[in-house]
Amino acid sequence: MKFTPGQLAQYWRSAANDLQIAQHSNVPEVMFKFSYDAFIKLGITMIARQGYKVRSVVGHHVKIIEKFSQLLRNEDIAVFGNKMRRMRNIDFYDGGALITELDGREFLAFVKGIFTQAKQFLH
To answer: How far from the centroid of its chain's Cα atoms is residue 31's Cα?
Structure first.
């Protein structure tokens, strides 16, 4: 599938908007949630850039993280991304996860760095 530059820009803006929300919050859970959402949306943007549309199916976040890591040739994306995914799942399905201020800031810093790396790839 071929995405237009406008479609890719829309994906990018959506991811960047979530990153902005994370950056402007002092609430660790908000920083984490929007950092994770921005991260996944950025992965979807990278995959779309390669001509593939992501479908919402069981396990799709795992596949997004895996492909995102491969595209940027950055194993930290797989390791850190899966750590974030597991924490998100604990928060969703196991009664909540404690996100500390340190966690929130660490995840935000990681995602900001990945945005910088992805921007070079996309432009």
So the answer is: 12
The pLDDT tens digits of the residues spanning 27-50 come to: 999 999 999 999 999 999 999 999
- Short-list 19, 7, 111, 81, CA closest to 49: 7
d(CA 117, CA 119): 5
Residue type, 20: Q
Report the predicted TM-score, pTM, of the whole model to 2 decimal places.
0.93
Two tokens at 103?
């966690």
Sign of CA dihedral 80, 82, 87, 91: positive
First and final C-alpha spacing in the chain: 19
- Helix runs in the chain, H state only: 5-23, 28-49, 60-71, 75-93, 101-122
80-114: per-residue pLDDT in tens? 999 999 999 988 888 877 899 999 999 999 999 99
